[in-house]
């Protein structure tokens, strides 16, 4: 690097980036395949909501205009949809933007810390590092469930944020809401419990399992929601934070103007109203999840019970191929799933629920690989 005169913050130099799932185009190129099935990033197997697609088409001509700052139409739609005041909602360029904003706004680098479970969604750790904020990861229990008392114990007076994914990514397990309430009560009062509900809509009873109905009783809890999964808008980038109003005001003040674009805003509003697509998504995911669980178990894999739109599994005692070999074997056959090595789980794999046809092809391929 001699001769360069750039200043690069130590937190950014040699940065260990977020590792996304492979894309269809990458795998097509690498293996010269014409058809590739992607079951790697928990996207919606049905694609984009037709109502959202129509809204994008209708609004495409507005692409030359800046959106209205703060996306008031979307905020109004979200508030009405969830029955909560508008002042709590901050839309973002994916919920990742809200995670980033929370990490830049709440903890003071060198003083405060952030707590989460080990082997959780890596953005919590990646963005903490970039901010120079201490990240504490708490081991899970032997069955991979969250150690909620352990998380509470890891939080001290300098803990600014505690992230919990409900239901969990990558296991799909969903802690009972009563246990999450207990955690919220046990935390120091100025520690914000951030519940990432990216997958809550895939639970059997989202209304009873989400923390949103309890938000008014807890001043120290925030909820993150995304349009990337249930609403099929991953590529348009749209999510939101539902936050204590005073914190929401700070995020609105500091965020990048226009980070939620015109097409995403229109798509989001339309998707919220598309009940048919929402219910069809839930049905297809619930059926596919049950089928994949059954078939993978029958093939001798250890499968973790999931309430999300994916399943975590690992080879059993009878398997000769390890997780890396299975992943590569599937890839060569044009099926992309997710290795969890970047979550610190060398022997685990995660498969997103696909369409009925995709699920069947995935099972056929993995059966042949194991034979
Ligand atoms: C997919 C996912 C998100 C959503 O990210 P977006 O930026 O909204 O696409 C958030 N949290 C978790 C745990 C996820 O798996």
Task: Describe this structure as you would to a colleague.
The chain is α/β, with parallel strands linked by helices and 371 residues long. It has 2 domains: 24-47 and 276-370, Aspartate Aminotransferase, domain 1 (Alpha-Beta Complex); 50-274, Aspartate Aminotransferase, domain 2 (3-Layer(aba) Sandwich), CATH 3.40.640.10. The protein is built from 13 helices and 13 strands. It has helices at 24-31, 50-59, 72-82, 95-105, 123-131, 148-154, 177-186, 206-209, 245-254, 262-273, 275-298, 323-332, 356-370, and strands at residues 37-38, 89-92, 113-117, 134-138, 159-165, 192-196, 221-226, 239-242, 302-303, 310-314, 335-336, 338-339, 349-352. The strands form 3 sheets. A 7-stranded mixed β-sheet has the order 2-8-7-6-5-3-4, with helices on both faces. The chain has a 4-stranded antiparallel β-sheet with strand order 9-10-13-12, covered by helices on one side. Helix 6 (148-154) packs parallel to helix 7 (177-186). The longest helix has 24 residues, at 275-298. It is globular. The mean pLDDT is 96. It binds pyridoxal-5'-phosphate (PLP). Pyridoxal-5'-phosphate (PLP) binds at residues 42, 94-96, 121, 165, 169, 196, 198, 226, 228, 234, 239.
CATH architecture of the largest domain: 3-Layer(aba) Sandwich
Order of helices and strands: HEHHEHEHEHEHEHEEHHHEEHEEEH
Cα end-to-end separation: 51 Å
- What is the oligomeric state here? single chain
Summary of the model, kept short:
The protein has 371 residues and is of the alpha/beta class. It is built from 13 helices and 13 strands.
């Amino acid at each position: 690097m001699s001769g360069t005169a750039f200043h690069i913050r130590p937190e950014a130099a040699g940065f260990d980036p977020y590792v996304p799932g492979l894309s269809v185009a990458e795998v097509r190129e690498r293996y010269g395949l014409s058809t590739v099935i992607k079951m790697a990033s928990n996207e919606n197997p049905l694609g984009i909501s037709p109502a959202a697609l129509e809204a994008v088409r209708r609004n495409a001509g507005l692409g030359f205009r800046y959106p209205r700052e703060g996306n008031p139409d979307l905020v109004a739609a979200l508030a009405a949809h969830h029955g909560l005041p508008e002042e709590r909602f901050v839309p973002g360029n994916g919920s990742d933007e809200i995670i980033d904003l929370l990490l830049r706004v709440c903890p003071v680098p060198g003083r405060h810390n952030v707590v989460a479970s080990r082997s959780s969604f890596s953005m919590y750790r990646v963005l903490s590092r970039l901010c120079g904020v201490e990240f504490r990861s708490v081991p899970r229990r032997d069955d991979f469930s969250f150690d909620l008392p352990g998380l509470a114990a890891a939080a001290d007076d300098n803990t600014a944020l505690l992230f919990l994914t409900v239901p969990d990514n990558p296991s799909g397990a969903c802690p009972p809401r009563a246990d999450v309430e207990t955690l919220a009560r046990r935390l120091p009062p100025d520690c914000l419990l951030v519940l990432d509900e990216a997958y809550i809509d895939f639970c059997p009873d989202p209304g009873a399992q989400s923390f949103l109905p309890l938000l008014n009783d807890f001043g120290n809890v925030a909820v993150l929601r995304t349009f990337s999964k249930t609403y099929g808008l991953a590529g348009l980038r749209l999510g939101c934070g539902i936050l204590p109003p005073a914190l929401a005001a700070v995020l609105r003040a500091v965020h990048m103007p226009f980070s939620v674009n015109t097409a995403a805003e229109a798509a989001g509003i339309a998707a919220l109203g598309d009940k048919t697509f929402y219910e069809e998504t839930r049905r297809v995911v619930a059926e596919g999840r049950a089928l994949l669980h059954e078939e993978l178990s029958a093939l001798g894999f250890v499968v973790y019970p999931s309430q999300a739109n994916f399943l975590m599994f690992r080879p059993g005692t009878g398997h000769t191929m390890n997780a890396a070999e299975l992943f590569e074997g599937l890839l060569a056959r044009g099926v992309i799933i997710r290795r969890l090595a970047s979550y610190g789980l060398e022997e685990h794999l995660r498969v997103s629920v696909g369409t009925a046809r995709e699920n069947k092809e995935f099972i056929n391929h993995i059966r042949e690989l194991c034979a």
